[in-house]
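Entry:
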Amino acid sequence: MSRRRCSAASIALLGGAIAVAGCGLGPGRGLSDVRLTVTRDYGAKPVLERAVGGVTESDTAMRVLERSTQVSTRYGGGFVQAIDGTEGEDRGGASYDWFFYVNGVESSVGAAAYALHGGEAIWWDYRDWSAAMAVPAVVGSWPEPFTGGYEGKRHPVSLECMGGGGPCAEVRSRLEIVGVPLAAGSPSGAIRVLVGPWARVRSDPAAAQIEAGPQASGVFAQLSRRGGGFSLKGLGEDGKVARSFGPGTGLVAATRRFEAPPTWIITGVSPAGVRAAAGLLDIANLRDHYAVAIEAGKETPLPATG
C-alpha cells in the first residue's frame, strides 16, 4: 500500500479532502452565492473560478463541487480521489491529493459534512503534501475569514500592533475598507492579526510555529537569525530552501495553533519589510496564494520556486 493510501486516515482527520456520505437532504432555504475556486500546486495553476448560485441551507461544500466539476471518490465515497480527471497519486517520491479550504481555513470536517451558510469562499487545491500534510490557514481568500468568519460562525477580529507603527495603521485601514470592525483588546475566540517586525512577532506562540517549519505552521518560509537580526528564505513544496531574500523583505502568512482561530502575520525582517507586507492586503496581491513574501516591490507566492 502506498504512503498516500496509508495516510488516508490522517487526512480524513484533517478534513482536507473527505466527503462524508448522507448529508444535506432536501431543498432547504435559499442562500447567497458561494465562490468556488479550484487550483493546482499551492494555487499556482488556476483550474476553475466561478460564483455558484442556487445554494440552499441543505447544501454542502461537496454538493457545490459536484455541481461544478466531475468528482470521483474512493473508500466508499469518503475520499475525493479526482476532480475533472486529476487524481491523487504518488509521483516521484511525493504524495499528491486534493485539499479544501472554506474562507481561508482548512476544514475540520469532510466536504459532505460542511454545511453552507451562504457567501463562503470554497477553495480546492491539488498539491504535494509531503512537506506539510496540514496547512491550517491561508491568505488567498482575502478578505476572508475576516468578513464572513469560518465554520459557519462570525468571529471578532483583533489587531495586535507589535512595534508595527505606521504599518499597523495601514492594516487597520485595509480591514476597515472591507467592512471589518475591530474588537477592543484581544477577546477570546478572535481571529488575530499580528503586525510588527519578526524580532517582536516571534514571541507570539502561534507565530513562533513558523520557525519550526511548514509541518508545524503550514507556512513555507524560514525565518532565522542573521547577525543582529533575521533573514527570510522561501521554501519550496519539498520544504527545502528555494529562494533567499534581502533585508527589506516582508511576509504575509496565516496559521493556527491547535484549535484556536486563525492568526494572520504581517511581518518583515526590518521595518521596511513590515511596511511592504502591510501594503499587500488586497485581493489582487493575495488571491489564491498560501502566503506571500515581498522584496523590492516584487511579490513571491510561497511555496517558492527556485
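Confidence is low (pLDDT under 50) at residues 1-26.
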